[in-house]
Each structure stands twice: as structure tokens, then as C-alpha cells.
Amino acid sequence: MKIAVCIKQVPDTNKVEVDPVTGVLKRNGVDSKMNPYDLYALETALRLKEQYGGEVRVITMGPPQAEAVIYEAFSMGVDDGYLITDRAFAGADVLATSRAISQGLKKSGEFDIIICGKQSTDGDTAQVGPEISEYLSLSSVTNVTEIISADAKSITVKRTLPLAVETVKLAFPCLISVEKDIYIPRLPSYLKKQATKDRKITLFTLGDFDDTDPMHYGLNGSPTQVQRIFPPEVNDKREMWQGESGEIVSKFAGKLKELKFI
């Protein structure tokens, strides 16, 4: 089974500055980590490999330092890694990101299944996986909570929806997005880390793609534009009241009415 996993490097903090002009995150100088939801996708892929055989590769888009999450994936048991990196991809929204990743997946070779995490912690859109499947004309299923079975031609999964649980069988090639309840991710192996520290990562730039139109990527290819960026207001005002309980309750009720909470 040939398995591709989409992973992402995200900020390891919630104190990230935003460029007021472009509306994109300022990632330079910020500690980063692998997107937590992608760990569940990786674990799913590695378990499929262990049970059915095959190979697992990861692909990510980002600046050169995003290689760090690929090497982390190597230390968990991944066989191959691809990094999509080019200034032309900077500032991409979910549509432009999905287009770039789909192009990278096509260049990385054949695959039976693509596995994505539910969403990323820095975007929270949960749209990239389904949009990749649209670009590649693949069947896809989201909200996957269990792998039931697989064979040489298909995979059967369980997906949990708000009002139902569905069992779906997909023919290869296909794409699934998994929930964080599917498995407990394994920890990186120090021995695998040492053994793979010099493993080559394949880089893709815009010129490597079949579609090399720069207007399809980055800010140019992003129909979603941020209109306004501002920090949330911090209200740390407080009042100290003293008196009898009945008096304080009456005053508290009046304050709630004043603030239009009731």
C-alpha cells in the first residue's frame, strides 16, 4: 500500500504576530512544531503500513525550516519526505494551499491513499483535505474515527457525524481526513532519528509543477482575503464590593442589567 500523509509545521505558541498589510502570520523567529492533528494521520498511516505492508511518505508546504517536521516524521517510521517551498507560495489561503499540495502529490509519485489530519491549529478551517481531493478528482471522506479493513483495491472506514455513524468503502486512490480519536500517536524513536538524520528530503518549487502559473498560488491565487486584523480587547477591570449578602446580590443583578447580560 502506498500512503501519502499531509503534514504541516505550525507555531508552538498562541502569541503570533500578524502582518497588518497581508493579513498572514509572521512565522520568522517563532518556535514551531508539527500540527498536533497530523500526528493522528501519521499514526493511521504507520499502522496501515504495519498491517498491510507498503510505504509511507509525507508532504508539507512551508519555508525551508519546515524540514524539521519531516525529520520528525522519519523518526516515527516514515520512509520518504517532500517539501513544497517557494516564495511564490507565501500567504496562501486554503484554496491556494490545496492547489500547491495537490501538485506536489502528483509529482511525488503514485499513491493508493492520502491521509490528512482533521485541521491545522493555526488555521482551523478543516478544508485543505477535501479541497486536495477535488483538485486530484479523488473520492474522500472526512471525520474518520476507525479503519475497519483494507485490501489491494479499497479501504473501509467508519466516520462519525453529529447525528449518525457511517461505514464507507472507498476504492483506491482516495483521501481520508482522520479525527484525533482514531489512535494514540506514537512517540518519535531516538534510534530512528539517528538513523534518518541525513536522509534526503525532496524539494519542490513552482517550476517543478505541471501548473506553473504564479497567479494560482500564494496571495495571487487566494480568493480569501483578510479585511482587518486586530488584537482582541483585554478587559481586566474589576470592582470590589463590601456589604451584606442581600445588598451585594442586588448590586450584582443591577450590574448584569447595566452590562446587558440580562
UniProtKB/TrEMBL annotation:
Organism of this sequence: Qingrenia yutianensis
Xref: CDD domains: ETF_beta
Residue stretches making up the Electron transfer flavoprotein alpha/beta-subunit N-terminal domain: 22-213
Protein's UniProt name: Electron transfer flavoprotein small subunit
InterPro entries: ETF_a/b_N, ETF_b, ETF_beta_N, Rossmann-like_a/b/a_fold
GO molecular function list: electron transfer activity
